[in-house]
Amino acid sequence: MTKDNSHTFTSAFRKFLTHEKLDVRYREKLLVESWETIMGKPIASRTTSLFLRERILFVKFSSAPLKQEMVNNKERVKSLIEKDFGDLVDDIRFL
């Protein structure tokens, strides 16, 4: 009998990302794209900029009261992100 080398697309894609050392960058892009799903439409609609640099998530809001609310709930936001993305983010900075 021959060995079956078939893989599902998902497992092959993950293996490719790991082999090419793109898995962290891919997860960062997924986080940015999933911001509305994680935080909800009201918060996402007031988010003007969102990016990761050196494991720090930078979030810029168009509303000062929302920014202050997010600063006060920073740990809760971080735990929501960790639930879906693990230890991808070390800190969050609200601008």
Summarize the structure.
The chain has 95 residues and is an alpha+beta fold. The protein contains six helices and three strands. Helix content is 56%, strand content 18%.
List keywords for this structure.
95 residues, alpha+beta, 3 strands, 56% helix
Number of strands: 3
Distance between the termini: 61 Å
C-alpha geometry: elongated
Strand order of the largest sheet: 1-2-3
Main β sheet profile: 3 strands, mixed
Strand share of the residues?
15-25%
Low-confidence spans: none
Structural class: alpha+beta
Q: Radius of gyration, Cα only, in angstroms?
A: 17 Å
Kindly state the mean pLDDT as a whole number?
88
Q: What is the helical fraction, as a range of percent?
A: 55-70%
Order of helices and strands: HHHHEEHHE
How many distinct helices?
6
